[in-house]
Every structure is written in C-alpha cells, then in structure tokens.
Specification:
The chain is of the alpha+beta class. Strands 7, 8, 9, 10, 11, 12, 13 and 14 form an eight-stranded antiparallel β-sheet that branches. Strands 2-1-3-5-4 form a five-stranded mixed β-sheet, covered by helices on one side. 34% of the residues are buried.
Length: 352
C-alpha cells in the first residue's frame, strides 16, 4: 500500500495552554499552565545568569539527537526576578535561581517539584549564596531535570490527544486486537490484519502563504515471542526493516520505507507499566524516493498472547521543525497497552 497523504485541517497542534484535570481542591485553586511546548522559563538576575547560562544551555539546549537538522531539546526564555510577574508564574516549565546571602541559602540546594503556580507545571528552585555555587548545584541535577521535562512534555501531548480522541477507533483496537490506546480524533485506520495495523493522521499547516502537508503514522506489529534477543537493537531494527519493506510502499513504484542508518538509532531499555520495554528513536527514509523524517518505536511482551508487540510511530514534516511532532507521536505510541480480550468477551484471533 502506498504511503499517501490524507489531507485534513490542523488547529493548534504544537502549542496549547490547556490545563490538566483537577484531582483535588488544592489543585483546583491553581490556574492552567501557559506557554508553548518545549519552552523553559529561567529566572535569574544578571550576575547569576552570566554564571548559569553555559550550564543551562549544555543541559537543556543540546540537539535532539535523532532529528535531521539541529533543533534544541528545549527553548529557553530568560527573565530577571523583577520580570517574573503573575503572567509568567503559571508557565509550564519554570526554573528560578534564588541567589542571596540568607540563612536558607548557606547550603546550596535545588528543589524539583510540580504545580507550584499552575496545574501541570514543572517547577525548580535553586538556592545558593553565590552565582557560581548556584551553577554548580544546578549542574549536579541538570540531567534529572532535563529527563523530567522531556517525559512531561510527551505526557502533555498525550493528555491533549486524550481530550479529543477517536473513541470509535480506540474501541475497535480494544475489542479486535486487545490494545488499549489513545488515538487522535482525525486519525484513520489504513490497514488492518491480525499481525499488522497502520494508523494514519494527515494534516495541513500554513507557512508563509502556502499550505504544507504534515503526516504522522503508527504501525503496530505482532510476532511470536521467541526469546530476549527480540528486544535487542539488532533484533528490533531487522524486524522493523522487514515489515516496512513488505508493508509500507511509497508513491514511486518500487519505493518503500526503511531505517536511515547514516545516523545510528538511539536504543534504550525502560520500565513500562510494571514490565519491561525497549525503545528506539531514529530517522526513516523512503528508499527510491525523497521522503524522510524521525521515528520512535517501543516493543513489549503481550502476556495474554505471548507475542512481542512493537508500536512504531513516524512523522513527516519537511517544511517544519520536528521536535514537537516527535514528542506527540511518542506519547501516542507509549499509550498502547495489552488487554485480556477474554475478559471483554472477545476471543483471541486465531492466526494459524
């Protein structure tokens, strides 16, 4: 089946000020978070900023490693303490440097928390008596903060998708394939077999005076589990390329989707809903054509069928930055979970 562009309109994809559901009276008193996805507001006076800017940039503005061009992991907005007004305090990601000679700053410290000024907010406060001490304590926990911010941005996209999800398609995947998921409302099912599902979402976005295509997709594959080597980097990539070559052709005759190996995919083993999963982030290309972009994949064992399930998401946005599309598609890919179809009255599909 050809990789075609299914066009629809796009409204407010990449940034939102939507708040999270209220879970307590205390939270209900907080305003909704504000700010664009991937933006971090750093509050520091001039002297402190001069000392901490290099470590901030190193920790939070390094390149997203799997993208085809440079894009920083986060965008930094620097404010002085006098500029931190009530309009800025609810920002989605807020880092405040408090440098002063007080009793509570004698021992440098860094607090990382949530929902200080708004619902869904990530908040960090660094206390120290000197700018250099503040830079040092921040540097010691910078990786932890960057990881939390990244995971939270992915989760926020999933929360937004869940507010306008395709309930009919989600129900179909649940009953026919034993997969609980969060699917965007404008997504469509392109191909469906017991071993392979292709979900497609196509959009148009305005840039300059022209509309341009943006395409995102999810491939779900099942394979009988034969051993832990299936979770290896080599195993995942070999399976991926085999499935894409067979299933995902391009508009040019003979073209097909494949992994781009000129930039090595990033592999990671993670804890996943009480179990184990392996993840990939990398670039895809269209062999025999000129399409390409980032992809993200996650593989886990379905305990109800003893099959390895791989959920592979891709984005195609040649005229736009891709960082936020990658986060969005990763959130959707990580929303898939196995369900016992017997418990919902559905017989497991016989694949023999």
């Amino acid at each position: 089946m050809a990789l075609i562009l299914l066009l629809s309109s796009c409204a407010g994809l990449l940034s939102s000020c939507a708040g999270d559901p209220q879970t307590s009276d205390a939270r209900s008193m907080l305003p909704s978070k504000v700010g664009a996805s991937g933006e971090v507001v750093v509050v520091a006076d001039a002297a402190t900023w001069a000392a901490v800017q290099p470590v901030i940039e190193q920790a939070l503005q390094g390149p997203v490693s799997v993208l085809p061009q440079f894009e920083p992991q986060f965008d930094i907005e620097h404010l002085t303490p006098s500029e931190l007004s009530r309009f800025w305090k609810p920002h989605r990601n807020l880092v405040i440097f408090d440098v002063a000679d007080r009793i509570d700053t004698q021992e440098p410290s860094m607090l990382i928390g949530k929902e200080k000024y708004s619902r869904g907010q990530i908040y960090a406060r660094i206390k120290a008596t000197t700018p250099d001490a503040a830079a040092e304590i921040f540097s010691s926990r910078a990786a932890e903060l960057a990881d939390l911010l990244e995971r939270t941005e992915v989760k926020r996209f999933l929360q937004l998708t869940n507010l306008r999800s395709n309930e009919a398609l989600e129900k179909q995947l649940l009953h026919a394939h034993g997969l609980r998921s969060v699917i965007p409302r404008d997504a469509v099912l392109v191909e469906e077999t017991p071993e392979f599902l292709w979900i497609q979402r196509s959009l148009t976005r305005l840039k300059g005076n022209n509309n341009h295509d943006v395409q995102m997709g999810i491939f779900i594959t099942r394979a009988p589990y034969t051993g832990p080597e299936m979770f290896s980097l080599a195993g995942m990539l070999a399976r991926r390329d085999s499935v894409l070559r067979e299933r995902v052709g391009g508009e040019v005759p003979g073209s097909f989707m494949a992994t781009e190996y000129r930039r090595t995919p990033r592999y990671e083993e993670i804890a996943f809903h009480g179990g184990f999963a392996a993840t990939l982030r990398g670039l895809w290309k269209m062999e025999g054509d000129f399409m390409g972009g980032p992809f993200t994949a996650i593989a886990w064992l379905d305990p109800f069928t003893n099959e390895l399930v791989t959920v592979d998401g891709f984005a195609y946005a040649p005229y736009f930055s891709k960082r936020e599309y990658l986060r969005e598609i990763e959130g959707i890919a990580h929303s898939f979970l196995p369900v016992d179809r017997g418990e919902i009255g559905i017989d497991i599909i016989d694949k023999q």
